Amino acid sequence: MRQKFFAGTQIRRLREAHALTQGAFAERLGISPSYLNQIENNQRPLSASVLLSLAQSFSVDLSEFAQEDTDRLIGDLKEALADPLFSGLTPSGQDLKMIAGNASWFAHAFLQLHTAFRRTNERMQTMDDEDILHRPAGTASDSGMLLPYEEVRDFFHYRGNYIDVLDVAAERIAEEELGIGEGTKVNELADYLLRRHAVRVECEKVEPTSRFMRRYDRVGRVLSIRDGLDPTSRAFLIAHQIAHLEEGDTFEAIIAEAGFRASGAAGITRIALANYFAGALIMPYERFLNAARSTRYDVERLCLMFGASFEQIGHRLSTLQRPNARGVPFYFVRIDRAGNILKRHSSTRFQFARFGGTCPLWNVHEAFEMPNRTLVQIAEMPDGVRYLCVARSATKSVGSHLAQPRHYALGIGCEISYAHDVVYSDAIDLKTTPVAKIGVSCRICERTDCPQRAAPPIDRGLLVDPDRRDFVPFRFT
């Protein structure tokens, strides 16, 4: 179902930038002042005719009016407000919608403040007397700031995991200068790196137990890559180095605009942006989107077509949100055996927990039990939105019996309304397949009948009856 488009804050800023009253601005748009007032207060959505009038009367780029995904922001606010710290405060869904829509800056500031509070509280609870006595004042441990990975995660989260300036630049290089075709691209990328930047690629033999993957020698202009890596990994590492050499200034501009506060966030973002560029270089946007549509988002076929891994394809699918050329919105996740989320990217409304573990009923956990199989599940979140969830295990080895392989589970998914566009829906009956009732995490899930619940919701009272025992040893109000 198409969502209504609200952009009251952007409209108000545009009007104020032109120093116009609501009456004068409304007249330019050909609407009534009362209608404009409702638009600016997000009481009425923007219609196609109003958007057209904006483009004609004020020469604005309509992509500037792309609304922030308020569903993500509302979900994050709900999770934060479930903290016992806010016991007794029960804002309605409409209240949260108004905050997210009319004052998103305040919502983000509130979430940052709450995260800083949680982080400080956790540190205080785990700190022993020796730490308290001997830790220098002002160190990161007592700063209460966001952890850098958390701040970078939110940076991509609230941008729908799409960075247009990098995607367009990578596509131009891929199409105009590299002429990358199908299959593995190691040689083409290595030749380009040498021709354009006088950097040669060399393989470096290391001990099997070494964790080394890549190293760039700025003086000697040599990119050393671990010997024995698979071609998809080698191609990605070379593309990653090209990103740093080609788009370093762009990275710095993006980082400066983001205004990170956590120490180390800028460095992590540089790596994340280089990874984003590398994926876009190996899988150029328009060509990849056309291939994804023609194969109905068949990841296995796309792997062969672009010489990429399941993980690389899954990540790229989550970025296909270019204005006027959008693909099916996907989430992508990578977890370890302990259930820790190692990577998560999304252009969907799927809500990931900001704190705590993931739902055990989600099929991404089951993938570890069924290696080399692609699992398909229909899952419903507590908000009633259903998703087509695809999961598969992955093992990364460095080619030696002495080196311990790394095991992961990978998951992609889209809203069920897009299921017929995705090949994985062919394996199930969308009408009769059982629906898994999953949640964001136990700590904020309100489901009362889940047999896999690990803990009660933190915003509910706990009920313990010594004369009764169910599958879950507690109930809650």
From TrEMBL:
GO terms for molecular function: DNA binding; DNA-binding transcription factor activity. It holds the Pfam family Peptidase_M78. CDD domains: HTH_XRE. PROSITE patterns: HTH_CROC1. InterPro entries: Cro/C1-type_HTH, HTH_RamB, IrrE_HExxH, Lambda_DNA-bd_dom_sf, ScfR_C, TransReg_Diox_bact_type. It comes from the Bacteria. Transmembrane segments: none annotated. One of its GO terms (cellular component) is cytosol. Residues 11-65 form the HTH cro/C1-type domain. Keywords: DNA-binding, Transcription, Transcription regulation. Belongs to the short-chain fatty acyl-CoA assimilation regulator (ScfR) family. This is Transcriptional regulator, XRE family.
